[in-house]
Amino acid sequence: MANLVVWLDVPATDLKRAIEFYSNVLSVNIDRKDFPDTSIGVFEHRDYEVSCCLFTAKEPVRAGYGPLVYLNAEGRLGEAVGLVETFGGKVLQPEHAIGPYGYRAIVIDSEGNRVALHSSR
């Protein structure tokens, strides 16, 4: 089975400062990527290793917001999103493209946790 956890988004108020913090504290390379509507810092990783990125949060970073865990819904993202409310969750952001990284939907699970459901296609 593929990894259940496939990615993490870590919010940052100041992307430059966060890249400096994590690259030094964890002794890893973080590649800044600038897109038309946002910038991210991608932690070094190989092929299909689970990794993460830093992103500039649109809202102030606060307790309870924190990292966003991406869970694997490969090949069945639409079906998975369709089941969220049936089983007591809430869809915050329906399925949408995330550039070259595939597709995601952000949901609240039955216990109040915010998670992303992800598929490469």
The strand order across the widest sheet is 2-3-4-1-5-8-7-6
Largest sheet: 8 strands, mixed
How much of the sequence is in beta strands? 35-45%
Summing up helix and strand content along with how strands pair, one would put the structural category as alpha+beta
Instruction: Give me the count of strands.
Output: 8
Distance between the amino and carboxyl termini: 17 Å
Known CATH architecture of the largest domain: Roll
CATH H-level superfamily title of the largest domain: 2,3-Dihydroxybiphenyl 1,2-Dioxygenase, domain 1
Work out the count of structural domains.
Answer: 2
CATH class value of the largest domain: Alpha Beta
User: In sequence order, what are the helices and strands, one letter per element?
Assistant: EHEEEEHEEE
Averaging pLDDT over every residue, what do you get?
89
**Radius of gyration, taken over Cα atoms and rounded to an integer in Å:** 15 Å
Number of helical regions: 2
- DSSP helix fraction: 10-25%
CATH topology of the largest domain: 2,3-Dihydroxybiphenyl 1,2-Dioxygenase, domain 1
Structure keywords:
2 helices; 2 domains; 8 strands; 2,3-Dihydroxybiphenyl 1,2-Dioxygenase, domain 1; alpha+beta; 8-stranded mixed β-sheet; single chain
Structure description:
There is one protein chain. With 121 residues, this protein is α+β, with helices and mostly antiparallel strands. Helices cover 16% and strands 40% of the residues. The protein has two domains: 1-67, 2,3-Dihydroxybiphenyl 1,2-Dioxygenase, domain 1 (Roll), CATH 3.10.180.10; 73-121, 2,3-Dihydroxybiphenyl 1,2-Dioxygenase, domain 1. It has an eight-stranded mixed β-sheet. The protein is globular and about 45 Å long. It starts with a strand and ends with a strand. The mean pLDDT is 89.
